[in-house]
Amino acid sequence: MVSNPLSVKYSSDENSRGEEETRLKPDVPDSIQSDHSESTKTPVIVEETTSRLDEKVPHEDKDTVTESEDFPQQKDVSKSNGLSDSKRLRKKSHHSPIQQSRSPKWFSKADIDKMVHLATWNISHLETIPHHPSVDKIVFDKHGNFKTQPITKDHLAVCTDQCAVLKSYRDMFEVVAYHLDRVLGLNRTLPAVARAFTGQGYLGIRYEDGRARPLIWWDPNLLHGGGFQEDQNSFELDWQTYQSILRSRCWADGREPRPWEKCFVVHLEWARIAIFDFLLQVYDRLDRNCCGFRPTEQDKCLFDGRNADCDNPDAQLMLVHIFSTRNDPTRLVFLDNAGVPERTEDNLDFRLLAGIDEVPRKAVEVLKSGRLGELLLRSLQVDRVFWKTQDRENLTEYVHVLEKRGKILADYINEQKIALVDDY
């Protein structure tokens, strides 16, 4: 069983930073200033929901998660030529790693199809991704007849629908982030599942230890550009320009962008990413210098000197991980979403919400319903490998953390009189 202690850092690259509270957390709701000592207790609704879902999960001795049993499509691939040999894996399984019949309404058919593919497709081989030593690219042999593709310098253009990104088990909460995105109706993350690899013989010791790891869908249509960390952005954007874009309200209220406005994406897209990042406390998109909270020793921005730029009015505070696609360049795609479970309520990064004047109505309705924890746990059960391999106490605690942040966010939206709008 994989344990996810909340003291462990879960983001892919970095995670936190801050400054004095009075400067870093503008317009913090009064409700957050009160004592939240009771928040360390798991609410009854989360405990009851977990108990109900446990009753529905098959017993471990009848439904063991293994590559040879739960993934009958998985074929062994030889090291020499990457060809498949299916004769060794003939044992049938009565269970699918993705519970399609129990999938909630917030998943589209395309979501479920991709989750099933991620969880069951045969593996051809693994490739490294330049400049990203902590992740690798899985190449699927989905038809059993994969032919090695020509080597190209542009690794981003090699895959169509045959690849996925395999991350460390420490990034497992990427799967939670995917389900959170769908529960809230944001629909901007790429599908993610948990998958374990054993007995393959070609993925290396790093991955073949039996631990479940997050596997993220590879979107070949992602745009990459800009002089600043080109493979981490669709376009180059600094904090000041971002704030001016928010003031321009691109396409909001039916208005067409003026020629001099840098309208990269639809105005409401920034609200989507802002509330999503606030709930997860992912700072390395909109606040990579950690200017909105007090950093800890685990936060890279604290020891690489970036946070010092927060006091420099002339510094270009660059944003990263801002992605869109060729198919729909005005809509964002959220990547690298493993959140920060351990961020305390008195140190939340409200800078992520700076300049946001409208938010998606559907997402806020979920936050105000008081059912976020229940819905999220129900959603996570669809991914059987994730559900069965995670430490239940830690998972329940993290869901409780997200639920508490959701209440804080809903209070903030109400007190700041931020408009609730439907998609456009």
From TrEMBL:
InterPro entries: FAM198. One of its GO terms (cellular component) is Golgi apparatus. Keywords: Golgi apparatus, Membrane. Residues 1-105 are annotated as: Disordered. Pfam families: FAM198. Residues 11-39, 49-65 have a biased composition (Basic and acidic residues). Residues 1-10 have a biased composition (Polar residues). It is found in: Endomembrane system; Golgi apparatus. Belongs to the GASK family. This is FAM198A protein. It comes from Branchiostoma lanceolatum (Common lancelet).
